[in-house]
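Why should sequence recovery work at all? Because a backbone constrains its sequence more than one might expect. Tight turns favour small or flexible residues, buried strands favour hydrophobic ones, and helices have their own preferences. The token representation captures these environments compactly. In the example below, the structure is given first.
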């Protein structure tokens, strides 16, 4: 896989104009973008369609957590937009994840369904607050096993879980890691961060980078630093 295809830039903006300005500035340096709830709510699906039309790949980070029929309908809607990846919440359990997978397989076989495990801002004490006694890595692996059995194409987890997830999922499973920052940068709200190079070396198939690129004085130079990680087949 080309290195540029393994770096996903998170368009965490509150307006379409700001997002499009960054995409234009990065040009051919980036071909994969993440759109989450903030930008989707602010700009609507038209931006997703435009990015796809312009030859970009889109990771639509919806974190779906609803009854199975609603999740399946949302996955089909994402598929009609032409996105490459969509997320479902692993905490929703097997039926919800399986409904997402089945909806994609039936109508949009190129759409990859990824299960969110434990968000990168969460610690063991956060899990304990909601009644989960497991440490973050243990909970990540538990949910990854559920996702694998449900047929998900991969999982979302922090860079710190990339290596055990690669061992669990084998060479074909997608391991997408948000929470990456360049060396020396503040991890911000990420409790389990890592550098893009370390995440890729540990077995991540993709890394998601946000402020390191989007808030950089020179986003192109920052993107090149992020992309300078190890290359895997």
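From this structural description, the recovered sequence reads:
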């Amino acid at each position: 896989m080309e290195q540029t295809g393994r770096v996903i830039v998170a368009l965490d903006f509150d307006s379409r104009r700001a997002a499009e300005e960054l995409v234009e500035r990065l040009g051919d340096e980036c071909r994969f973008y993440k759109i989450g709830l903030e930008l989707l709510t602010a700009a609507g699906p038209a931006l997703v369609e435009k990015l796809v039309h312009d030859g970009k790949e889109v990771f639509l980070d919806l974190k779906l957590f609803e009854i199975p029929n609603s999740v399946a309908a949302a996955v089909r809607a994402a598929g009609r937009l032409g996105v490459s990846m969509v997320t479902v919440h692993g905490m929703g359990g097997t039926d919800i994840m399986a409904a997402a997978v089945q909806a994609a397989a039936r109508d949009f076989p190129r759409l990859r369904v990824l299960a969110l495990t434990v968000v990168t801002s969460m610690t063991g004490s956060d899990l304990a607050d909601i009644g989960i006694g497991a440490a973050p890595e243990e909970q990540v692996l538990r949910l990854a096993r559920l996702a694998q059995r449900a047929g998900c194409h991969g999982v979302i987890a922090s860079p710190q879980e990339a290596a055990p997830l690669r061992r669990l999922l084998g060479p074909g499973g997608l391991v997408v890691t948000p929470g990456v920052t360049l060396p020396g940068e503040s991890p911000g709200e990420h409790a389990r961060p890592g550098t893009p190079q370390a995440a890729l070396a540990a077995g991540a198939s993709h890394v998601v980078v946000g402020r390191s690129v989007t808030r950089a004085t020179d986003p192109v130079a920052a993107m090149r630093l992020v992309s300078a990680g190890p290359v895997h087949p």
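A few observations help interpret the result. The two ends are 5 Å apart (CA to CA).
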